[in-house]
Amino acid sequence: MTATSDSATPAETSPAHTGALTAVTGETTSAAGARPRAANGRFMPAGPADGEQLPTDRFLDREISWLQFNERVLQLAADPDMYLLERARFLSIFASNLDEFFMVRVAGLKRRIATGLAVRSASGLEPRELLDRIMSTAQGLMAAHARIFDEQVRPALAEEDILIVGWDDLAAPERARLDEWFAAQVFPVLTPLAVDPAHPFPYISGLSLNLAVVLENRKSGSEHFARVKVPPLLPRLVQIPAADGEEDLYSARFVPVEEVIAAHLPELFPGMVVREHFSFRVTRNEDLEVEEDDAENLLAALEKELTRRRFGPAVRLEIEERTDDHVLDLLTRELGVSPREVFRLPTPLDLRCLDVIADLDRTELKYPPFVPRTHRDINRHESAKAADMFAAIRRKDVLVQHPYDSFSTSVQAFVEQAAADPRVVAIKQTLYRTSGDSPIIDALVAAAEAGKQVLAVVEIKARFDEQNNIDWARKLEHAGVHVVYGVVGLKTHCKLSLVIRAESGGLSRYCHVGTGNYHPKTARLYEDFGLFTADPHVGEDLTKLFNQLSGWAPRSKFSRLLVAPSSIRSGLIERIEEQIARAEKGQDAYVGIKVNSIVDERIIDSLYRASQAGVRVDVLVRGICSLRPGVPGLSENLRVRSILGRFLEHSRIFVFGPGGRDAVYIGSADMMHRNLDRRVEALVRITDRGHVEELVDVLTRGMSDEFSSWHLAGDGRWTRHHRAEDGTPLLDLQSVLIDEHAAKRSARRG
Are residues 642 and 618 in the same domain? Predict the structure, then answer.
């Protein structure tokens, strides 16, 4: 549910490109060519319909739209029909999402304002006006977030004997047990820092939880200030130890660790009187800027920038609501934050800690257990040990949907079998986000050590995963894997795997093109599609693209792929124009898009023109949406829906023509400037009719009023539709898909 995998960089309505960017990928082969081309070979933006200018206020603001997305997450936490521990998890997700939004989006906007580089947004808001809107909206959302926890979720947890209590709520024996824990585990690692002429105000690291302590000297009566940082390695919520013989598996009591520390402050300041203490938390600018053109060693440059990240300027100060004004004045002055960047909240601060509650072993308070299945087209080739991935792919293209179809028995098995197969001579793989202990990393290491040619295109600039990616990139290098870091000026975001295998007829290429990362953990939580194919055209496409990423092949053309930054936007606009032409001839025309975010103005304008021409347009978007649907004369034929729930809807699907009869693509790209202009992305055309129908069905159901979803109106307001007119709950699409996949598994066993 988080927005982490899709964190946005500062928006640019007209990105400038260096020569390196245009040399990365070639234009895809095209049959239509209806739009005029610019000198660089790209499609020019299509002109306004009927010679009339589209309205200037046709775009919703992307930052406000993101905040509305996080508000939808909050609505799930507030839903009394939701499983209780899942409500706690959604509260945690909301907090984590907002942290990242401030660290990146707010920080970036403030930086551009300060340097004079900020411009009016596509929505028409001036930079400072937008910042005011963001802060005002965030204040309301954070207040609602705290209120939902304090007035709804916390009492509901207490009814289930899951309590988050304060120090004053503890019985004497409980305090005694926590006294022992504090003395043994906490006191030795605390570092109280005084503030006086000899001790300057200490640096407050981003997202750290701190105690501001007001002290009085017993002898002189003078007032002093100190800061105590809550060590991040300590448990954020401390489970109160039960007395011997009183263990209850269905009861859990927690106290915030800062309350335990606060109760023992006199031990940190002997001889002083602790008059007051208040918790506070700072959010800093933690976006990275690496000038790749000037960096001889990208790893070294990035590691240096990671060190600088810790010292970014503050962009938000969270304080507990009872904080005295004189303490607040000190904090705002020393941290350099303005009054509008101060958020007064009830304790406990930083409700990311609720993931500890959500992870409790109380299955009756969570979503029902779910076990992914092995896809039926892979399962047909299952031996006593494991499915034969190569036999399955040779037979036909295989389309998997995670997490309903198992990642471990499909994508992971594909790479592992390639590494172990003596006939495999080479493996080429893109890696954007994964885990250091990933079986895929281990398989690539094993393949290299076995003498196979292994290429890993590693994106070490994946936001907030930079250090992890550096660590396992070095692990791959040490094993003999050819590790490259993509193309200067671009992030490599495409999800591709290519295996070359020696067979009786010569070398065969087996391919995987996906919408999600090669990350076994997130594959259990993110909804994604992946295509396995031995089609020679896709194999040739992937070979060319990997050659571009590792060497020089600027004039490559592709058969079944659209590749950014050169041909995804132009290729999709061309497909939209084809549907416009059909509608103008009186034929049935349709465009369906499922993405995480849609912001790109040229894509949006094409969809507006399609709607004006009578094309039915459906957009299923999880996060940001700058479209205004249902506006008379502009977008009357355009609908926008959003689905949030148990799994994070992450797949990208593009459907053209009723039933997908004209073209269907899946791939890695969202409709954002960064994806279309500053990343290497890939979409693959789906040719199997059964797969086309499956993908169209996903879009059709997502847009159906039969299922719970949010609907976007032309004025930018999102409305949740989760009950029928008679009050009965609408179906949850993800739950239905779980049941359907389970039924298929049972039918196969029968």
Answer: yes
